[in-house]
# Entry
Amino acid sequence: MSYTEKITNRYVEKLSNENLWINVGEIMIKILVIVFLAGLAIRIGKSIIRKFFLVRSKSPLRISERREATILKLLENVLTYVIFFIALMMILEALTIDVKALLAGAGIVGLAVGFGAQSLVKDVITGFFIILEDQFSVGDYVRIGQFEGTVEEIGLRTSKVKSFTGEVHIIPNGNILEVTNFSIHNSVAVVDVSIAYEGDMELAERVIKDLLVTMPDKYEDLIKTPELLGVQTLGPSEVVYRITAETAPMKHFFISRVLRKEIKQCLDENGIEIPFPRMVMYNRQDEREKKQRG
# Structure
């Protein structure tokens, strides 16, 4: 009998062993049971978390909806990862793999990787706390360092901010030291209006106030009636009035433009002049001729 035939017969005998297939069947059943129980535990755990937040939403003391949704999703992900990890360890143990040795080796490798990837770990930890503390959300208008724009995406490692001109800035979360969020509270539009010294100041104040009262009915982004604060500065050729208006978050740019347009039209209709630069020409030759004639 040749060597190949001996090897073939040996494997045939092993594969025809009933105990082998019984053990394989037991292992497969254990794996299926572990997967089923893991899926069931995830569904039950997520249901408990959602019911907890549903009950909390009816409480008089509650956090913002954005933060509730963020924390809910974060807890569901953590629950899923933990159960998957436990199920994986149980499956490896069912396959007669030494889990303790594997975990010890993984710990040593993880320690070595941690020393070589400190910035990555810092980014992930910072991203976790950005999401947990709801420092900013997708759609918010923020200023991070020298970058300012709308948040396009928030991840555990990086955040993406799209500027007004279309550039997308990808910022590692570990580099985010200070954040200015313009979208949490209402904004304030500030408009300065100039009136000529020759103009009627009392009439100008009266027509501007009458106009401002009608503005909230025209523009829903106004939270309340704009306010004429009074004379802000006395310029070389004009009196400057300041007007402020509380608006919805990040709507102050639009309201500022609208206010300038509406006030300009209102002043024109009432014959109130807005000053503009004037140039006076002086001719020294004409002045000499006048002196000679005199």
About this structure: The mean pLDDT is 79. Residues 194 and 262 are 14 Å apart (CA to CA). The first strand starts at residue 141 and ends at 144. The chain has eight helices and eight strands.
